[in-house]
Design a protein that fits this description.
The protein has 377 residues and is an alpha/beta fold. It folds into two domains: 8-234, Rossmann fold; 260-323, Alpha-Beta Plaits (2-Layer Sandwich). The protein has 13 helices and 13 strands. It has helices spanning 8-12, 31-40, 73-80, 102-108, 125-136, 140-154, 169-181, 199-214, 227-233, 251-258, 304-314, 327-347, 366-376, and strands at 14-27, 43-57, 62-66, 88-93, 109-113, 187-191, 219-223, 236-241, 244-250, 263-268, 282-288, 291-296, 317-323. The strands form three sheets. The chain has a six-stranded mixed sheet, sandwiched between helices. Strands 11-12-10-13 form a four-stranded antiparallel sheet, with helices on one face. Strands 2-1-4 form a three-stranded antiparallel sheet. Strand 6, helix 8 (199-214) and strand 7 form a beta-alpha-beta unit. Helix 10 crosses helix 12. The longest helix has 21 residues, at 327-347. The chain starts with 7 loop residues before the first helix and ends with a helix. Bound molecules: adenosine-5'-triphosphate. Adenosine-5'-triphosphate binds next to strand 1, strand 2 and helix 3. Adenosine-5'-triphosphate binds at residues 23, 25, 47, 49, 67, 69-75.
């Protein structure tokens, strides 16, 4: 196991070093006989949900941990919040190993799991806040001023005398956010906090989170499938797929690498197209008379702006329209690129570096992850 860096900066934020979690579960054998047999002789299977995951979030930073369903995001967060103990690797959160010192860790962190509440179902929200105040020993005046701040940002007083079970989803998650921060933790974990909310409430929550990072200096690790959220909140993202970190870098860099799924719709000033003059990394997607759609080709296509310049230099163009895919498409491209690179790797029995250094090899080693990270920096 590699020792964690001990610089104050790193230990104050979040550090994951080679985190791995393997679940052992029992599965039912098929058929009636199989089910009976499973009762006396359960069939055990292992599932490695997270494999050698390493990243860090500096104090006062917000990092979005992204990945498709089942990628291992929640499992990673559960290890960092002390809910799960890793099978191997290590984590440190505000200088504390979360699964070893759960109580100390709980004082340093706030956590919101969008799908669950930590509030008491039968208590009015404000009473839940009072219970939390007593649990964490928050002084009365600090509690009052924090509640006033959260009410200003999240408009809680409209419903804080309502029992939690009667709240709408948006009201419940706003209450959960306040509850998670009432003891003023420096570190905040948010697992899909705005799932299922309407756009107005989502925007309110995002403004609240920005305030917590920019004005309060909190360190935030966020998982979400909402790319608007990522674009609004995160400067840096870690992309995880099949339990492994495949990209770690500034959002802009990832956009540049995987956002090249642009299209240039050109109406040419001449019939037909001289294919020999096609710029490298550019292909013809469609052609209908003088109307031609250009798109990226190969592993290192030019950016839309470079391609535009090249197309205009090489062809006489009467009319132009551009189409650049949004962040959702960028992320889809990043996931797919990794999936196909992985399939290629396993077909070659684990050989070779992945295309463009964008993905880890199927040996899953730290070196593969490191090269992926370097790839986007
Ligand atoms: N307690 C458990 N026992 C067995 N397998 C588990 C357990 N928890 C998670 N897994 C498996 O680990 C993998 C990663 O799950 P995880 O919930 O971390 O994914 P996720 O990235 O958060 O997905 P989503 O975006 O759908 O929430 C999945 O294949 C899941 O089925």
């Amino acid at each position: 196991m590699t020792a964690l860096p001990s610089s104050p900066r790193a230990t104050e934020g979040i550090v994951a070093q080679g985190l791995t979690k393997t679940f052992r579960t029992s599965v039912r054998r098929p058929g009636f006989g199989g089910a009976l047999r499973s009762l006396v002789d359960p069939l055990r299977v292992e599932k490695t949900a997270v494999q050698k995951v390493s990243f860090s979030v500096g104090p006062g930073q917000l990092l979005a941990l992204l990945g498709p369903n089942g990628a291992g995001k929640s499992t990673t967060i559960k290890m960092l919040t002390g809910i799960l103990t890793p099978t191997s690797g290590e984590a440190r959160v505000a200088g504390v190993v979360p699964y070893r010192e759960r109580e100390r860790n709980a004082r340093n962190i706030g956590a919101v799991f969008g799908q669950r509440t930590q509030l008491w179902w039968d208590l009015p929200v404000r009473e839940s806040f009072t219970v939390l105040r007593d649990i964490y020993g928050v002084p009365e005046d600090a509690h009052r001023s924090r509640l006033a701040e959260f009410d200003r940002l999240l408009e809680l007083s409209e419903f804080w005398d309502t029992r939690v079970r009667h709240l709408s989803l948006g009201q419940r998650v706003r209450s959960d956010l306040a509850a998670a921060l009432l003891h003023d933790p420096p570190i905040v974990f948010l697992d899909e906090p705005t799932i299922g909310m309407d756009v107005v409430v989502k925007e309110q929550v995002r403004t609240f989170l920005r305030h917590q990072v920019e004005q309060r200096g909190r360190t935030v690790l966020l998982t979400t499938h909402d790319m608007t959220e990522v674009a609004r909140l995160a400067e840096r993202v870690v992309l995880i797929n099949h339990g492994r970190v495949v990209l770690d870098g500034p959002l802009e860099e990832i956009r540049r690498r995987f956002g090249s799924t642009w299209q240039i719709h050109a109406t040419l000033d001449h019939p037909g197209l001289d294919a020999a003059r096609l710029p490298p990394g550019v292909r013809v997607v469609r052609q209908d008379g003088p109307r031609t759609v250009f798109g990226p080709d190969g592993s290192a296509p030019p950016t839309m702006h470079q391609a535009l310049r090249l197309v205009v230099e090489r062809y006489r163009v009467a009319d132009l329209a551009l189409e650049e895919n949004d962040l959702e498409d960028v992320m889809r491209a990043a996931y797919l690129r990794h999936d196909s690179a992985e399939a290629g790797d396993s077909a070659e029995a684990g050989g070779g570096a992945a295309e463009g250094g964008a993905a880890g090899g199927s040996d899953g080693g730290g070196a593969a992850q490191a090269s992926a990270r370097q790839g986007v920096r």
